[in-house]
């Protein structure tokens, strides 16, 4: 009857998951993201028009049955370009954040764990990069690398890196101060093991949240760069590039600017909602 | 009455307002109001008197005599005379960072004959010199302002004098009361506002915040025409847009298009120039076939715009014996219009079996890459000069300043040099015809379209005329309230 | 306190040097010869060489940096290769424009963001909170430049209520100045207001969990007083820090906003300068922005020290 | 010790049948909690962590989180006045003026942004005219803070934990409340400081003839300061009585288990008897007697909720088998 | 039996606090010249108020911190500045139990992983299945059910987590266990369970135990010898009963007198609060709160002097003060009926404990 060790608490991993699942707006965000991700992934097999098939006879046509979202300045189908554009936008968001993570997290962990001059050097550089406004840095980098989607992603990735370095460093400092890291030391575990098993998984939740939110801003940044002509190059579509072109036909064909704007808004909203939901779900205080 | 200010929207901010250091096209527009030149350009592109009332070349073409207008004063009150001309031309030739040196390279010395007569001694006959004197090389600054910062406060003798400038924001001028032709000036002030985005420029015109906008987007012309309170104006331009090939500039020239003129011709034939003009420019520009536009007296009707001919293009490719599909890298400046044009070309060329890969570059990068031969083909253009020499010699003569493709043909070099030294129009025409024949055969570059100058004008503005040189002349313009 | 700030300033010197070196190297790696861009249609080898000479572009990169740094230390930021004007003059003439834009956006953001944040934290879980969050998230998710374009289309082109572009100094015509800045400030301010609202909310939620808020309630204080005097006062610290950090975002946002509304400010200048390879200008703008950023952080630190007795007294 | 005889006429607070239900759970967090406190008396509420001690005190103060207070039922009679516990406005009027409260965490319970004098005075100002600074000073002297004039202008972080707890007491008492609720006021303090604070509370309470509810889980503290004791377990009061009765004659198996778990300070050291397991959470709450899952004597009868029965003068226990030594003979 | 397992000689640890860029640094003397000796198989307790350096001392003893000065030896081997393989060996022999069962277990690892980690580090020759079996054995040794190996720490209650921590500490097969307030964070009922467990383990595994606590009752229950710390120094050591029944140092007396209980603790209690370890009082650290302090106390640091009974006291005036007796509160006498109830309870508990023990060993 009197079990010494009957665990009575609910399983915790599922608790985060449950919290996320019951988070209505997060789920809405997840659905938005999933929808666009699905379109982006399946663009090539969806029964839609060729996004670069031009039709001189049907330029800048308003939405109609034949072209649900109208046509662009070269008579290409906007609907299909929007779907293909999702590819560029999502790719840009995800790849640039991946770059930032790949560079930022290890550096931040090193700085936070070892401290001393390593920390001093990394932190100073981070600070320097952080005090250059994100977009200016991205523009300078993008024009250094030359206008292309890949280069825009690299530029945004580099520009987003310091945020992750700083976040990771701060989190690492917090985690290092935790008793369980000291307990790992007391057990006699080696530094790489401690970094891998103790520091990394425990700094992950905030990094994950930040990643989601950064994907959102990276998508906007890609659109901004494309808008300035530094991103995706023609004839491949991207929402920012579409806006860039549409800007010239604002009066004659306002819908050309409408769709990409709405799409960017929705995807970014999706990522933001998801990020917020993740943050709430991972926050132990919010019960 | 209230001071009347004409507000003009420009597509970009002029650079230094010093005629010897100015390089931008919009800068020239501002100089038109601010500074008089020795010679002016008429609506028919003929050279007409401005500060010089008469001019003539000596028999051997090595001296240019000019008679100067009397009673002209600079904005600071300094009188204009032959000594001022000498001082100005010498400044252009000697100032450290003068960009006028090449234009005036044939001028060896300037002789003051008397107060109103001046002679330019030339090292060799130079027909295009007159056209240079109708441009910034001919602008006369007040010699007493040389010591101050000219760009910050240019002192000329034009109909308007400089008031203030805020970089990237506005340039303000006001009417110069002592102008020699003051009667023709009916407005009190003029303000130039650089607004790069054509939509925003148009929006400002529509809302009444601007009275006149330069470089109306072709696709907006309809909007302007439809608006009750706006007027659309247009003039044929002198410039062109085309495709330049890398013929002999470095390793990248080693590609089928660099080596075989037939392929270049095939590409040219695959392009439907009329369609481009229609789709991208609402039919307002002109499809082009040669280095001058129909506005120029030198236009050669023997070379009409090539019609699209896919079959012939394919035949030429077959004849060249290369394997299809052909691959070609085409670089272009990342501007919306160029982007549309090259995308259309890409689609059209594909039908002839030419796969074009596009590479957008910032203008600065593109020029550098072009100069260093890091390109196969480049979609570039030229804003155009009144004298035909300015539209061709630098581009195709051996070692020419703009000959980035490295094209070299001794025959062409000879013909163009001869035409340059010739001042008789008919003889020059014949020479240029000869050149056209060769160039049409070899196609080191081909032409796509001539840009027209498009303006949106408020209906409050009366008396505005569009000129083929793209300058906005303020004489006779009136503002109704 | 003063010595603390002085120390902070000293620490930022290496940061500034790092920034300048970084920007300098980055620029030197940019493709495109500034001289070619500059010469435009009038290029011949002689002119180009002369220009290179004039702007020290023919010297080794480290020399160029040292020459530039020497100038900066002496207060000379160099000459714009494009306009031929001294960079410091250009910056001085642009600064007020961007500052006006920034201040107006910030005021907008503060006036909207902070009260909304407090309200939604206090009413956590209610419809008010939900609505405020939805609006804020939307504000964060709308691309600035798109919002700007749409506003121009509607407000300026269609309804012709406000000018689509331009800038009138406040001193010249205050009414017109505010009119021209209204839309840009709104566009720039929405994102900020959203950020501010969200951060205020979460700071407030954090503070309202604190024991001393419960103590204040236990004293029988009116709820209003508990929230404003006890909770908000302590939530202010992170919010003030955020406002300083947002300054950086503001400048970045200004880049696009100024581009779209053709406002002759800092952001526009830097984009134009990057595109025309106007090294001296890019360099100076980044440096000045970084200094501004550091100063804002310093101000935030100082404000925090003033707000937080724990820091003030140690 | 304070063994002031209290008669019911002196009754200050009677808490009646307080229940707290949480949406989605059948078992209430608090279940029929009733007790009373007289003037000059110290009622100690003891029990393990999570037994509902703090919830009870917060209910009296009307300070439950809004989400929780929706499920609150019950009333109290305070100073002759009948108040429904859901009537937050009435509770708020009492708060800080008639009922003072101090909390466990002296480190975080003071607002770091304001001077302590100001914080005490604010409590005065809320309920009285005047700026309250004189009263604040007087209170600081009263709670034994040296150099009180100077300390008035200190910020909380300049004080040690013990000092801060004194400030909290000063703040709670500045309006001379009739009832003081102290929720584990010494748990976070060192033994030597704890002794000081307990003495202080006891002194002030006698001087002012306050009723006091002291929440703690330390039976030593209970033995030191209590006049009466209520033992709480899983949201119910399982045993209550005068302090002597609880210590000399504990009845409920839970009370006995708690006492057995404490290592003795004297006498032989032997293996400790424990209370196995942990307090059930709202999800795992058993039917009937809530202690039955941990009770070594649990039988099938325990499925029924045992009533609080009076086993001796004013000594109640809620166990079917009390007194154990009679009812369990043979059964074991 | 009385061979020392761990000895510390004049051990000090100073922390550099408040220092930073362009800022003068200040030294905090967390541990200030501590000497002690712990015998094999005994339980040694360290008691003192918050901030007096107990945890720092514990971390020094197992070399999680490096001493600023002084020496530590384990069975005669100097471990004051070992590194690498020697340090790993030390980690095997000396293990640590943390105060906070919530923060000392990595929340992202399962119990099996947590307990297996020291095995991986110190007994790499084990196969995965051997390891799993060993983990199961360790878990049942601390009274947990091996079925719960694959759960995460936060799915357990505080007492259970403390058991996981203990299992983890036992995994490398240590000979010394240092517990930094191993039961302070637990409720009395659970605390009693863990106290019992630790003493069982000590007896069955022959461990040497060093226990830090501030609850004197807990210390009396667990330890053979006690050291009382005040502001970085040990003021008195001796066998537990001697310290509790005949405390000599004024601080020890005050501590015992402050234990709450029915008679309100003995005497006036201790006034004032502990001074800061950044600027401790000169001479005797305790003199600012000591009723017996004289001028000399401000001048000389009192040496540790033996008082007989294997005790030492660091007070200049211990001879004058004499020994106090019975400063602790007296528990009220239970009625005979109550005693009977307690016996009943104890018997019933003994049975359930045995039952569950068997259940675990099944
Ligand atoms: N909002 C809530 N929703 C559900 N359960 C809650 C909520 N707040 C508190 N509880 C639960 O109510 C029970 C009683 O909590 P309470 O704080 O009153 O305990 P306590 O006896 O004061 O414990 P401690 O000694 O730890 O302070 C706990 O089990 C707690 O988990
Ligand atoms: N890493 C550190 N850096 C600076 N100061 C420290 C550090 N660790 C401990 N201290 C200080 O050293 C002193 C002793 O700390 P320690 O943790 O050893 O005390 P303790 O007796 O264990 O206290 P507690 O009972 O609160 O756990 C304290 O004043 C503490 O603030
Ligand atoms: Mg509590
Ligand atoms: Mg400790």
Automatic annotation (TrEMBL), chain A:
The record gives the membrane topology as:
Multi-pass membrane protein
Q: Which InterPro entries does the UniProt entry name for this protein?
A: BP-dependent_transpt_permease (IPR050366), MetI-like (IPR000515), MetI-like_sf (IPR035906), OppC_N (IPR025966)
Q: Which residues form the ABC transmembrane type-1 domain?
A: 86-275
Q: What is its main location?
A: membrane
**What is the organism of origin for this protein?**
Paracoccus fistulariae
Q: Which residues cross the membrane?
A: 25-49, 90-116, 128-146, 152-168, 207-229, 249-275
Q: What is this protein called?
A: ABC transporter permease
Q: Which family does it belong to?
A: Belongs to the binding-protein-dependent transport system permease family.
**Keywords for this entry?**
Cell membrane, Membrane, Transmembrane, Transmembrane helix, Transport
Question: Can you say where in the cell this protein is located?
Answer: Cell membrane
From TrEMBL, chain C:
Membrane-crossing ranges are: 9-26, 99-122, 134-157, 177-196, 235-261, 281-307
Domain ABC transmembrane type-1 as annotated: residue spans: 95-300
Q: Which Pfam families match?
A: BPD_transp_1, BPD_transp_1_N
Protein location: Cell membrane
> What's its membrane topology?
Multi-pass membrane protein
Record's keyword terms, sorted: Cell membrane, Membrane, Transmembrane, Transmembrane helix, Transport
- Coarse class of the primary localization is membrane
InterPro entries noted in UniProt = BPD_transp_1_N, MetI-like, MetI-like_sf
Family to which this protein belongs: Belongs to the binding-protein-dependent transport system permease family.
Protein name as it appears in the record = ABC transporter permease
From TrEMBL, chain D:
Per the record's keyword annotation, is ATP-binding included, yes or no?
A: yes
What is the protein name stated in its UniProt record? ABC transporter ATP-binding protein
Q: Do you know which CDD domains this protein is assigned to?
A: ABC_NikE_OppD_transporters (cd03257)
Q: Which organism is it from?
A: Paracoccus fistulariae
Write out the GO MF terms: ATP binding
Residues forming the ABC transporter domain are: 13-259
Topology versus the membrane, per the UniProt entry?
Peripheral membrane protein
Write out the entry's keywords from A to Z. ATP-binding, Cell membrane, Membrane, Nucleotide-binding, Transport
Q: In its keyword annotation, does this UniProt entry include Transport?
A: yes
Q: What family does this chain come from, according to its entry? A: Belongs to the ABC transporter superfamily.
Against SMART domains, the record matches this protein to: AAA
Automatic annotation (TrEMBL), chain E:
Residue stretches making up the ABC transporter domain: 6-256
CDD domains the UniProt entry points to: ABC_NikE_OppD_transporters
Primary residence: membrane
Annotated membrane topology: Peripheral membrane protein
The highest taxon in the source lineage is Bacteria
Q: Which Pfam families match?
A: ABC_tran, oligo_HPY
Report the SMART domains cross-referenced here.
Answer: AAA (SM00382)
Q: What keywords is this UniProt entry annotated with?
A: ATP-binding, Nucleotide-binding, Transport
The cellular location(s) given in this protein's UniProt record come to: Cell inner membrane
Citing just one GO molecular function, the answer is:
ATP binding
Q: Does the keyword Disulfide bond feature in the UniProt annotation?
A: no
PANTHER family membership: D,D-DIPEPTIDE TRANSPORT ATP-BINDING PROTEIN DDPF-RELATED (PTHR43776:SF7), TRANSPORT ATP-BINDING PROTEIN (PTHR43776)
Question: Family per UniProt?
Answer: Belongs to the ABC transporter superfamily.
Task: Tell me the protein's name.
Answer: ATP-binding cassette domain-containing protein
Gene source species: Paracoccus fistulariae
């Amino acid at each position: 009857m009197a079990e010494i060790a009957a665990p009575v608490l609910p399983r915790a991993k599922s608790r985060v998951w449950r919290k996320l699942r019951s988070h209505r707006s997060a789920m809405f965000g997840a659905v938005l993201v999933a929808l666009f991700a699905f379109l982006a992934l399946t663009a090539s097999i969806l029964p839609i028009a060729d996004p670069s098939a031009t039709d001189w006879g049907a330029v800048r046509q308003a939405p109609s049955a034949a072209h649900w979202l109208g046509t662009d300045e070269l008579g290409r189908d906007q609907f299909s370009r929007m779907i293909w554009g999702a590819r560029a936008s999502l790719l840009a968001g995800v790849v640039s954040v991946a770059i930032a993570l790949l560079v930022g997290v290890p550096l931040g962990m090193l700085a936070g764990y070892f401290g001393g001059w390593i920390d001093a050097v990394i932190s100073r550089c981070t600070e320097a990069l952080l005090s250059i406004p994100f977009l200016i840095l991205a523009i300078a980098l993008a024009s250094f690398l030359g206008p292309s989607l890949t280069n825009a992603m690299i530029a945004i990735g580099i520009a987003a890196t310091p945020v992750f370095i700083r976040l990771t460093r701060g989190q690492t400092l917090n985690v290092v101060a935790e008793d369980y890291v000291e307990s790992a030391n007391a057990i006699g575990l080696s530094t790489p093991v401690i970094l891998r098993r103790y520091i990394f998984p425990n700094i992950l939740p905030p990094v994950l949240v930040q990643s989601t939110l950064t994907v959102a801003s990276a998508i906007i940044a890609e659109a901004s760069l494309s808008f300035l002509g530094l991103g995706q190059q023609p004839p491949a579509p991207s929402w920012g590039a579409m806006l860039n072109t549409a800007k010239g036909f604002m009066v004659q064909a306002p819908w050309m600017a409408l769709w990409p704007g709405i799409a960017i808004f929705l995807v970014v909203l999706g990522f933001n909602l998801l990020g917020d939901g993740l943050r709430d779900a991972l926050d132990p205080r919010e019960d | 009455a209230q001071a009347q200010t004409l507000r003009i929207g420009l597509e970009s901010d002029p650079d230094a307002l010093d005629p010897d250091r100015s390089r931008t096209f919009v800068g020239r527009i501002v100089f038109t109001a601010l500074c008089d030149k020795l010679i002016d350009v008429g609506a028919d592109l003929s050279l007409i008197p401005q500060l010089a009332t008469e001019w003539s070349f000596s028999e051997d073409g090595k001296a240019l005599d000019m008679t100067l207008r009397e009673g002209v004063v600079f904005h600071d009150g300094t009188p204009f005379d032959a000594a001022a001309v000498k001082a100005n031309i010498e400044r252009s030739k000697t100032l450290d960072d003068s960009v006028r040196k090449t234009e005036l390279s044939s001028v060896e010395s300037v002789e003051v004959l008397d107060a109103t007569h001046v002679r330019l001694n030339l090292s060799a006959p130079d027909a295009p010199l007159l056209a240079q004197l109708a441009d910034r090389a001919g602008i006369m600054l007040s010699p007493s302002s040389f010591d101050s910062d000219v760009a910050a406060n240019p002192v000329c003798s034009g109909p308007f004098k400089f008031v203030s400038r805020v970089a990237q924001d506005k340039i303000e001028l006001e009417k110069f009361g002592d102008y020699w032709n003051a009667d023709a000036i009916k407005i009190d002030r003029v303000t130039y506002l650089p607004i790069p985005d054509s939509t925003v420029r148009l929006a400002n015109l529509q809302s009444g915040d601007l009275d006149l906008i330069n470089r109306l987007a072709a696709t907006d012309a309809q909007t302007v025409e439809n608006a009750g309170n706006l007027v659309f104006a247009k003039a044929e331009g002198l410039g062109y847009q085309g495709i330049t090939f890398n013929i002999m500039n470095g390793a990248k020239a080693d590609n089928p298009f660099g080596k075989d003129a037939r392929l270049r011709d095939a590409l040219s034939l695959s392009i439907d120039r009329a369609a481009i003009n229609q789709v991208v420019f609402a039919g307002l520009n002109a499809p082009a076939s040669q280095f001058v536009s129909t506005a120029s007296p030198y236009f050669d009707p023997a070379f009409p715009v090539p019609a699209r001919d896919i079959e012939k293009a394919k035949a030429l490719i077959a004849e060249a014996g290369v394997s299809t599909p052909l691959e070609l890298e085409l670089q272009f400046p990342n501007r919306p219009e160029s982007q549309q044009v090259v995308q259309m070309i890409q689609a059209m060329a594909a039908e002839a079996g030419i796969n074009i890969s596009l590479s957008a570059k910032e203008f600065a990068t593109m020029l550098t890459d072009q100069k260093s031969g890091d390109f196969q083909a480049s979609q570039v253009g030229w804003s155009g000069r009144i004298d035909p020499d300015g539209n061709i010699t630098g581009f195709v003569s051996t070692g020419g300043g703009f000959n980035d493709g490295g094209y070299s043909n001794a025959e062409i070099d000879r013909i163009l040099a001869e035409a340059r030294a010739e001042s008789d129009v008919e003889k020059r025409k014949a020479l240029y015809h000869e050149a056209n024949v060769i160039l049409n055969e070899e196609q080191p570059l081909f032409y796509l379209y001539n840009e027209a100058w498009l303006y949106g004008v408020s209906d409050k503005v009366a008396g505005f005329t569009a000129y083929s040189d793209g300058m906005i002349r303020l004489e006779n313009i009136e503002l109704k309230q | 306190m003063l010595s603390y700030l002085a120390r902070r300033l000293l620490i930022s010197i290496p940061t500034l040097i790092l920034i300048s070196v970084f920007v300098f190297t980055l620029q030197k790696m940019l493709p495109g010869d500034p001289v070619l861009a500059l010469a435009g249609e009038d290029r011949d080898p002689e002119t180009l060489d002369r220009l290179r000479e004039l702007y020290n572009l023919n010297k080794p990169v480290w020399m160029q940096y040292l020459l530039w740094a020497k100038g900066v230390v002496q207060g000379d930021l160099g000459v714009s290769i494009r306009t031929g004007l001294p960079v410091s003059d250009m910056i001085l003439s642009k600064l007020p424009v961007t500052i006006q834009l920034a201040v107006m956006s910030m005021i907008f953001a503060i006036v909207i963001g902070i009260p909304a944040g407090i309200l939604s934290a206090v009413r956590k879980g209610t419809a008010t909170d939900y609505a405020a969050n939805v609006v804020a998230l939307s504000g964060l998710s709308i691309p600035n430049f798109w919002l700007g374009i749409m506003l121009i289309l509607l407000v300026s082109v269609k309804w012709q209520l406000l000018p689509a572009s331009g800038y009138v100094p406040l001193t010249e015509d205050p009414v017109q100045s505010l009119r021209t800045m209204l839309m840009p400030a709104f566009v720039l301010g929405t994102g900020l207001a959203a950020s501010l609202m969200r951060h205020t909310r979460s700071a407030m939620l954090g503070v309202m969990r604190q024991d001393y808020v419960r103590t204040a309630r236990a004293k029988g204080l009116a709820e209003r007083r508990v929230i404003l005097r006890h909770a908000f006062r302590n939530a202010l610290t992170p919010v003030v820090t955020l406002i300083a950090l947002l300054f950086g975002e503001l400048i970045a946002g200004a880049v696009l906003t100024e581009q779209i509304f053709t406002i002759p400010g800092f952001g526009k200048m830097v984009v134009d300068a990057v595109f025309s390879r106007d090294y001296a200008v890019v360099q100076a703008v980044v440096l000045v922005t970084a200094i501004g950023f550091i100063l804002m952080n310093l101000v935030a630190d100082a404000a925090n020290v003033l707000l937080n007795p724990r820091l003030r007294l140690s | 010790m304070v063994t002031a005889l209290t008669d019911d006429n002196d009754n200050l607070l009677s808490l009646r049948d307080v229940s707290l239900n949480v949406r989605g759970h059948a078992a209430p967090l608090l279940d029929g909690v009733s007790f009373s406190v007289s003037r000059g008396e110290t009622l100690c509420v003891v029990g393990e962590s999570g037994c509902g001690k703090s919830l009870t005190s917060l209910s009296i103060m009307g300070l439950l989180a809004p989400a929780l207070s929706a499920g609150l039922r019950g009333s109290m009679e305070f100073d002759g006045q009948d108040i429904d516990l859901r009537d937050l406005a009435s509770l708020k009027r009492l708060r800080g003026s008639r009922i003072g409260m101090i909390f466990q965490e002296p480190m975080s319970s003071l607002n770091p942004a304001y001077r302590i004098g100001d914080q005490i005075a604010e409590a005065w100002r809320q309920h009285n005219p005047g700026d309250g600074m004189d009263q604040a000073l007087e209170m600081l002297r009263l709670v034994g803070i040296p150099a009180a004039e100077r300390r008035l202008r200190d910020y909380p972080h300049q004080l040690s934990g013990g000092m801060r707890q004194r400030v909290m007491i000063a703040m709670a008492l500045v309006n001379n409340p009739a009832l003081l609720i102290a929720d584990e006021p010494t748990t976070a303090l060192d033994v030597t400081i704890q002794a000081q604070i307990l003495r202080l509370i006891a002194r002030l309470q006698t001087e002012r003839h306050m009723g006091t509810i002291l929440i703690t889980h330390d039976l030593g503290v209970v033995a030191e300061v209590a006049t009466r004791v209520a033992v709480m377990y899983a949201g119910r009061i399982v045993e209550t009585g005068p302090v002597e009765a609880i210590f000399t004659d504990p009845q409920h198996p839970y009370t006995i288990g708690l006492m057995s778990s404490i290592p003795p300070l004297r006498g032989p050291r032997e293996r400790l008897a424990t209370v196995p397991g942990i307090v059930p959470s709202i999800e795992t709450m058993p039917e009937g007697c809530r202690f039955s899952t941990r009770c070594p004597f649990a039988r099938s009868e325990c499925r029924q909720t045992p009533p609080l029965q009076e086993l001796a003068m004013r000594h109640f226990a809620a166990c079917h088998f009390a007194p154990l030594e009679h009812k369990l003979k043979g059964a074991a | 039996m009385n061979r020392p397992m761990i000895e510390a000689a004049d051990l000090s640890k100073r922390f550099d606090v408040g220092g930073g860029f362009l800022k003068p640094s200040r030294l905090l003397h967390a541990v200030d010249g501590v000497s002690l000796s712990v015998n094999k198989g005994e339980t040694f307790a360290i008691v003192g108020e918050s901030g007096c350096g107990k945890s720092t001392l514990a971390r020094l003893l197992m070399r999680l911190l490096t001493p600023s000065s002084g020496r530590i030896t384990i069975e005669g081997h100097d471990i004051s500045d070992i590194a690498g393989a020697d340090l790993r060996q030390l980690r095997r022999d000396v293990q640590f139990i943390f105060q906070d069962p919530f923060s000392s277990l990595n929340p992202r690892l399962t119990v099996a992983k947590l307990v297996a980690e020291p095995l991986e580090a110190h007994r790499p020759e084990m196969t995965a299945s051997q390891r799993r079996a060993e983990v199961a054995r360790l878990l049942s040794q601390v009274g947990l059910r091996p079925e719960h190996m694959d759960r995460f720490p936060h799915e357990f209650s505080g007492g259970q987590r403390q058991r996981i921590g203990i299992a983890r500490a036992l995994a490398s097969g240590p000979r010394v266990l240092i517990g930094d307030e191993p039961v302070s964070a637990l409720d009395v009922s659970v605390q009693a369970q863990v106290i019992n467990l630790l003493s069982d383990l000590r007896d069955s595994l022959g461990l040497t135990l060093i226990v830090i606590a501030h609850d004197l009752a807990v210390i009396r229950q667990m330890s053979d010898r006690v050291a009382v710390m005040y502001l970085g120094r040990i003021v008195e050591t001796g066998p537990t009963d001697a310290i509790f029944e005949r405390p000599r140092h004024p601080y020890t007396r005050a501590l015992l007198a402050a234990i709450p209980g029915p008679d309100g603790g003995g005497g006036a209690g201790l006034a004032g609060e502990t001074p800061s370890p950044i600027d401790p009082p000169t001479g005797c650290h305790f003199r600012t709160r000591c009723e017996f302090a004289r001028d000399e106390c401000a001048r000389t640091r009192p040496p540790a002097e033996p008082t007989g009974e294997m005790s030492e006291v660091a007070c200049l005036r211990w001879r004058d003060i004499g020994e106090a007796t019975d400063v602790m509160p007296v528990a009220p006498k239970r009625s005979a009926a109550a005693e009977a109830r307690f016996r009943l309870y104890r018997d019933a508990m003994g049975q359930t404990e045995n039952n569950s023990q068997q259940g675990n060993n099944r």
